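Forwarding these from the shared drive since the link keeps breaking.
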Amino acid sequence: MNYEHIKTGLLIGLVGLSMILTWQLWTFQPNIELLDDTARYVPNEAMSEERKLTEIIRPEQIVIHQQGRHTMIPTNDERFDQLYQKLLKTNFVEGDMLAVGPFPKQVQNGGIELIFPTSIPVDIFLSLFQVDQEEFNLPLSTINRLYMYVDAQDEQVHMQMLSSKDTQVVEVETNFSVGDFERNFLRPFNEYVEVFQANNRSSTRELSEHIYIPLGPVTAERLSFTASPIPGTFFRQALFSDPDSVKHYRQSGSVESFTDGNRMINIRNNGLFMEYRNPIFSGTHERSSKHVVQSSYEFINGHGGWTDKYILSDWNSNDLRDEAEYRLQVNDLPVLSFQGQDHMVLQTSRSGNQTETYFRPLFDLDNQPIDAREEVKLPSGEDVLNRLKQLEFFHIERLQKVAVGYEMIMPNPSFVTVEPHWFFLYDNSWRKVTFDSNEGGGSNGLE
């Protein structure tokens, strides 16, 4: 009897369990997107947040001038960012809009020169300071250097703005605190890195664009990071107007492609880099009213593309195409080589109003490096310049920049090392300085 009761109880339990499971099955809502590998995408929150223009446009050097000597605030010195942030909060008063130079102005107590990686369109420059261009009209098209000093007559901080493109300089009065300027930035002159002027690249003797190089040896850190992949399928959602119509292909040579018949994304180097193409077939293109720097910034901001620290490094514009480039910064130094190639940039080009190409890395670095750090002592700036003068092809008139930057090595897809080296920009191409006379530059412009 008891045996029959046990069987009846088990049967009732199984029937109850069956009803519960049936109810869960009926009410279950599957995530269809995640069941289809070809439709999988990474939502926007997996990418970076939007960034302000002031985070993307920054000086690459801040040089202090004092009685014929020059020092430079290191980019990782907190005073570098402090000065720039204080400057961005400064108001301008129209001054000498027809100034003829010299630049930088020679004053007894010295001044501070800010050098940007590339020229800044004047409307974007004024927007950094939240100045209305209609109310404050500068007779310049671009600005690439600033010089701040205390004027002896009115005891105010004045600022010169130099435009290489226009071969012109204007001068304005600012409300930057004189005491702050002198006490916190001018007086620590001897605490900074001593530099020398490599040459004068100006087209006129009065408007000088010197290349400043550290006089003595330079110490920088070799760092390692873990790297996280950015799935290329994210850009299927971000860059195609109808993601459902996009086809997925695998080509030879480990190239993966997405296309809707017109636009195409090619993912190369085993998923490390992406190239987007949106061909424009019309013979005539209406030029955009927005500058390419503004439109490229909005384009990358629109899909959260600032996955690491990138800053505006170059742009150009002509009748056929407008281009802009943003370079990766690690530890406040530019990454100028990825295993021998200049790939660590976000590059966009535009034809008319439409983004035509977009190139970028498909990985980002963790916020903090792995504990293993190593200081690397590099040769002095004088040794670097002497080495360059020994190169057969070298003409100092074509030298554009000399800088300490990083070469990135990726032994596997989840681990990278950045190693500091001297680099020089020559004929618009970055090259690594080597001290072995038997080594020559490669076709890609990097040794």
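-- next protein --
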Amino acid sequence: MPETHFFTPAAGVTFADVAAAAGVALPEGADPFRTIGGAAPLESAGPTELAYMDNARYAEALTQTRAGICLVGPRFAARVPAETVAIVCRDPYRIYAGLLGRLHPDAMRPGPQFGGKGLASGAHVHPDARLEEGVTVDPGAVVGPGAEIGSGTVIGPNAVIGPGVRIGRDCAIGAGTTLSHALVGNRVIVHPGARIGQDGFGFAMGATHLKVPQVGRVIVQDDVEIGANTTIDRGASRDTVIGEGTKIDNLVQIAHNVVIGRHCVIVSGVGISGSTTLEDYVVLGGQVGVVGHLRIGRGSQIAGSSNVNRDVPPGSRWGGTPAKPVRAWFRELTTLARLAERSGADAADGDKS
């Protein structure tokens, strides 16, 4: 079976382009017009490929790399083999990410799955929907009445865009997603299987549980990315809001009335209960649980698998269950470890006697 390559590198990226992206001069003697044929890890990169290194764990791999050109921090620059052109810079990984986007622009967001443009045969677009020029709708997708979709947006196969939903320009809506009661900004990426705008979990409890109608919306601002199989419930009476530039991983649950600020990072497995607010630049590690009606302050970071059950001040670093400032958490863990060790030693002494 022939080898399949899903992402063919774009032509025309040169060694001079790499140096320019890093904001440094190309080393003396390097050919500025030498082109890059792709990117690869240090251990497998060849003479036509770009690599990067910014982690001490890969110091040995750096000494043996055959990469044609390598982005590297000052700390490791002396380890680059003579045959490899070293681009010494302060943030190799970030620069590498930008160059990788130039090499593989088709990997930046999901594209059409059927290979065409415009409305594919088998797409179902209501006559009252409004699509700008340049929208692509793959087979099996459904676009409801009154929906509006901006130019450059791709709607994947079997996606459902509900009545009145508005989606901005240059978005990618993945296969099998559903969007209802939602307003989506520009350059938003929604990966396959995500569910946005369905009922929040609202019931007036009693002998029988009375459903509370969820009459809010989901507002997704510009440049947000939402991972596969993530769910974002619409508001009960207020809107659920996802702020500009926020990045959400796969398998995240965001409940009704949650407000997430700008440029937050929410990692896989997180659950955020209703009416909680995350201010700008908050980071939640994997499997964090947040109870409802809390506020997590600007720039705070919560360690993975923690449970947050009270407000978090701005700029904090918390962890544990229940979550607390990391220093207190580490002291707690250290104390428990010492107690366990002492208890084990006492038990051993008792057995000897």
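The chain has a mean pLDDT of 95. The longest helix spans residues 326-352.

- D.
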